[in-house]
Amino acid sequence: MSKLRAEIEGEGSFTLFAPSNDAWEELDPTLRSGLESNVNIELKNSLHYHMVNHRLMTKDMKNDMTVTSMYNNLGIYINHYPNGVLTVNCARLIHANQVATNGVVHVIDRVISSVGNTIRDFLENTDDLSSFADAALAAEVMDKLGKPGHYTLFAPTNSAFDKLKPGFMESITENQEVIKALVNNHLLNSVQCAEAIMAGTVYETAEGSTIEIGCDGDSLTVNGIKMVLKKDIVTSNGVVHLIDRVIMPDSAKEVLGSKTEYTLLAPLNAAFTEEVMSQDETLLKLILENHMLKTKITLNELYSGQMLETLSGKMLRVFIYRTAVCIENACMVRGSKEGSNGALHLMRSLIQPADKTMFELLVDDGRFKVFLSLMETAGLDELLKQKGSYTVFAPTDDAFEALTKKDIALLKGDLNALRTILLYHFSDWILINGGLERGVTNLLTSLQGNNLQVKSVNNSIYINSVEVPEGDRMATNGVVHVVKNVLYPAELPVGRQDLLAVLTKLIKYIQIKFVSGYSYVEIPLSFFKKTITTTIVEVPQSTKMIRVVEQPSVTTFTKIVEGQPTITKVTEVIETEPSVSRVVVAGESTRTKVTRVIEGQPSPKKVTRVIDRKPTITKVTRVISGASTDGEREMSTETGVSKSTVIEPQIIKGPDFSKFTNFRDNPALVNEESERITKLIQAGRGGFAAANRVPAGMRRARLVRRHHKPTE
């Protein structure tokens, strides 16, 4: 019909993917009618799309391979699956490698159509997929679906989203991680044509979780649910299957249907026995609350020794073993899941929160009177009470029933022997049945020092081959396993015949060795915890008044000379060499201080000349350095060549006071010298004033200080 016969009978080397008669019969009638109504163009182009311009055998066909067709050089997409199935554009090769003189023919089970669109193009151009397209855009996955690749998309239709709880999509769209997880949970990073899928095959999604693809007649199932509406929509970067349900990832599921974050520790059905279910409503509610945590904790966030708070306020301990993760007495099974507002962990049994110490458990039980009595005699009963993480294999009173009172007294009479036996029943590590690897013998170091051999068989614990009838009784400071035999290290001998006779009555599962003269060593009780109690007593703060009396080192005498008070300060420096003092007078009124330094080594002093308009306090200072600086000092101004001469103050030599230690030794001398110095100052006032005045037309010269390094 398409006039193609001449071409395929002529010379050349072709590959023809030829649809079978059944394939043409199954072709959509509208599509077939369209081809046959335009045989010279549409039909011929369609047939050319089934042809490759070279020979291609099945051995040459690789998975995810693209070959160029003879129609507009469009690609044909080949997949070669591990199970041997070969497809071209998801059409299965049912009769391959039919070699001809001018090529090869492969019979396929459907008519294939030319492909030019990507998965993104298909989503954007299909109205019934608008909800998923919006989700893919919000999740920033749409760009990926428009690029070259090899993908399988299970695309939910709009009706699939309509089945979700109202407002659900709006609530998760605001959470970028959740919406991205939802979209990626529908995407595989490989091309999976329907004809190649084997029932029960599990695939990993781009989100990281897994989905199981199966078959139900001619239909595909996802996670056991028949949901595929249309399959094998081929695009240039993969294949699309339309589904009528949303495949919800764990991270998008809600825990308890609440926005509050929780963690559910959910026991399997087998944990809810008739005895449990027969409890009253209050107790059942408490059991459930003990399996719910107040916050979201994923499996990766759990660590050994971690404390978890339940809704009921109980604290649960986490134990991490080599092959198990346990919370109190219950261990997890595989299948932990994370939801949008919580996490779910599956537990093998009901969790038993601890609320009593090991000592309280044994006392309340009533079957451990002999064991507790021996612990008290050995001074070890505190071990059952103190904080810690211990495992005790506690023998019941039945284990001691063969002993007489005399035998028990003999045991209590040898403290080292008694402690050796008792501490062999303890370990400073919490070991529960679920934490043991099945069928493997575990060595557990006892507080006595020798190892205990622990093994789990048929969900029962065996300790040194002795069965533990009751285990995993959780205490706040450890776990109690009930035994009906007294345990003893097989490698440890006994050195006394009377003690051997008692132990032989007690211990039946081993033959105890006798070594004459052997004595038990004293075991350091380093496992006892020292408790230091610190009492803080708050005492009101008191304010203390302290009076500090200091003896002044400078004595000041003041003498009024005339109308305006003049303060004269006399300074006495106690030295062996004569002191040179200077009196610098400036300004109008003058206050002169006379100060005597009574004690201490004299500090190096500098001569400071003060020139100021304001009244000046005159200082009398001793210069320790060599010669005096009598005479005139010239001070130049910065303007012109003018020079201002300042007359140095007079130097008044006082008497040598080195012979006196205090003015009080000669009061008369104080008055005499004060009067003499005052007269000299008054007599020289005119000269000082003239020296202080600045000649007309000149600025006052800036004070120049000459610093001399003092002689020490």
From TrEMBL:
An individual GO BP term: cell adhesion
Reply yes or no: does the keyword Disulfide bond apply: yes
Q: Which UniProt keywords apply?
A: Cell adhesion, Disulfide bond, Extracellular matrix, Gamma-carboxyglutamic acid, Repeat, Secreted, Signal
**GO MF term set:** cell adhesion molecule binding
One GO cellular component term, please give it. Answer: extracellular space
Q: Which top-rank group of organisms is this from?
A: Eukaryota
Could you tell me where this protein is found in the cell? Secreted, Extracellular space, Extracellular matrix
Chief subcellular location equals: secreted
**Where in this chain does the record put each FAS1 domain?**
1-112, 116-247, 254-351, 355-487
Q: What is this protein called?
A: Periostin, osteoblast specific factor a
Upper lineage is: Eukaryota, Metazoa, Chordata, Craniata, Vertebrata
